[in-house]
Prior knowledge:
Blueprint: H1 5-56, H2 61-68, E1 73-78, E2 84-86, E3 96-102, E4 113-119, H3 121-156, H4 158-171, H5 187-207, H6 212-286, H7 292-325, E5 331-334, H8 335-349, E6 354-358, E7 362-365, H9 367-383, E8 388-394, E9 397-402, H10 431-441, E10 445-450, E11 458-463
Parallel strand pairs: 6-8
Antiparallel strand pairs: 1-2, 1-4, 3-4, 5-7, 8-9, 9-11, 10-11
Region (Disordered): 206-225, 451-474
Catalytic activity: ATP + protein L-histidine = ADP + protein N-phospho-L-histidine
Keywords: Kinase, Membrane, Phosphoprotein, Transferase, Transmembrane, Transmembrane helix, Two-component regulatory system
Amino acid sequence: MNLSLRVRVTLTAIAVLLVVLPITGLTVKAVFDAQAERSLDSLLTGRAQLAQQLARQNVAPGNLVRRVDADGVRVTLILRNGRQLGAPQIEPGGTVRQVTATLQAGQQTKGAQLLLSADTGLLADASARLRTVLLLSGAAAILITALALAIGMRFALAPLDKMTTLARSIASGRRGERLNPKRANTELARTATAFDEMLNALEGAESTARTAEGAARTSEEQARRSEELARAAEGAARSSAEQARAAEAVARRSEDRMREFVADAAHELRTPVAGLQTAAETLIQLGPDASAAQREELELLLVRESRRAGTLVSDLLELSRIDAGLQLQLAPVDLRQLAEAQATRLRLVAPDVSVEIHGTATVTADADRLTQVLTNLVDNARQAGAHTLRITVAPTGVHVEDDGPGVPPPARERIFDRLVHGPHSKGAGLGLAIARGVARAHGGDLTVTNRPTPHPGAAFHLHLPPPDSPPHPA
Length: 474
């Protein structure tokens, strides 16, 4: 109770910073260390994969060592005859991270032992520098916050100081002074107005001695109203603060989900882009001396990786359209006709998979979007190893059952999240997320269960609303 409000608020803010800053610093350092370790492992693994690719291209051992060499990586190549190329061999352990690979191709390099070593001491130095930067920035943040609070609290509490000064002047016998707030829509302004009203009531009571009892009752009533106003203002302030905190929490969760999604998308794009870069660099390095088989292999790699990147970008754009509100082209749709089109397509791309179609129904929906959903479901079943598909059409939706491995209960909701890969998935993990978004845009949903025992496999259920129910926006 001996400390002023200004000091208590300042000390509280500094205490919060003393708790939050170390936690934030430790989190940043842990993330940095983990990312550095993953980057080092990725560098060594990528160099080993490049060496295997160069060996398949029958690159000479010396040229292979020079092309695999990179900053921070020691390359040692031990041929089958015991000849050693590159940097001297060092033992792993301590601050040395090492990856060993046996080359599988090449006239001179087949069976050769490749040693890739990296010094992790650089990572430790970087981590130590980061820790120093975090400590210095944290101390500076605490100092700046303390100075800012010391200055800011003086302006923030100025109305209270003015009220205190006026109260003391009235207590000393001076009358007639008022706060007269310019704005009446703030908590302090309403309190100041109530304070002025109380002073008016008190001075009126003093000037009318004959009606002292009535004036006292009036001032008491006014004081009660002032207290109620103050309590109401305090309650409104608390409610506004709670709403602001809730909104901030929702915004932060949305921002975190968006950052995670963008990071995952960037990670997914990194693989095809890296493939394109590697193929292009290799094609440029080989030049006109490359054989027709090598050039054709690299060109096929460029086409495949570019298609993969294009498909991922298209899926991401499709998800953005769903998030923004999918515009549906509604018309009568024959669900059995859509199912038969999928069966025809599947007979072309996977002749060993049989399809059974049962039932018939016509609904009001977007035919292209429902085709997109059925295509994703059929392709997922085929990639999971299914040999038989059963498609059941009904006015309430479409059921796609297969004889694949099924989906375990803990993963039945997670597989509809974005960028989630199943054990048999070959895509970017966006197909089921898009399919569920399209289903919900129609006012329905997409769920998955397993087929009843003893039949193995998964059962996807595309639920559609009754014919008289309009679709909802995505």
